[in-house]
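Can you make up a polypeptide sequence alongside its tokenized fold?
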Amino acid sequence: MIRLPVYDRGTQRFELAAFLCLGLVGVMLVAYALSDAIKFAVARDDIIAALTTGSPTPIGHVAHGQTNVAVSITVPASSTTDQGRSGARPVCPSPRT
């Protein structure tokens, strides 16, 4: 009978410890992502209001419960590159006609 190769007890314990550590890291990452998702869901209305008004909150004066305040997005009133452009694009014939 042909027997499959086996490995010693020390290797088996090391392999088990390595995979348990990897599993623990994975569980911690999922827990961290879940906690951030819950924070975002709680502060969703505040985040949407801040992004639509275009008034960034200073980092030093952060209200309790807000998430992702490190990013300040300002909405320009009008861009100089957009002036003079029409809304419609010119009609170009298809190369396959």
